[in-house]
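subagent[fold] <- orchestrator: predict structure for attached chain, return tokens only, no commentary.
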Amino acid sequence: MVHTHFVEESNMKRIMACAVLLALATAIAGCGASGSSSSTGAAASVGAGTNAVATAPSGATNAVGTIAAATPTLSAVGGGDTCKFLSASDAAALLANPGPVKVVVADSTNQKLTTCTWGNITTAGVLLMEQELTATAPVSVIKAAMLKRIVETIPGLGDGGGFETKTADAVSVTFIKGSTIVLLSVSTTGVNADAVVAAAKKIADGI
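subagent[fold] -> orchestrator:
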């Protein structure tokens, strides 16, 4: 299959936007926890577009330029070969021959971020980011920030969500349920948007 540089660049910008949204939620959560701080390095690193899905931050640099830098407290822990939020058969329904999954889990005092990747999201792949906010946070503020990126609402998806991207070769669905934010993104020629929605709703039902 042939993908133009424009498509890859567009996908990369979309992934970075999603990572920034998750980073924003983390920063808000950190503000709600007394005496604690959060880091967004793991979420932002997903935009690198390689199979090294997430890494622990190496410095106190925050991914969101408008938010003050926070002390890095995020640490990557063991991943594995199974994504508990999306099965291998579910991934195969979204992408032909997705290959093995790469899973990275990162914990901090304010969040637990799980990233599952099949293939290469910049060309043909599936990306799932599940962020559990473990500190008291103004969920309404987080939800409002997330919904600003929604281009088409999907009824019955968690506590609110919808399509963040919906094109012939890239579909992203994001939603919030309780204090958990989920992003499911699929890049390939002729993405089945209905299948992505069905997978997102299955994830939401399991939270």
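orchestrator: received. Logging for downstream: The chain has one domain: 5-206. The mean pLDDT is 72.
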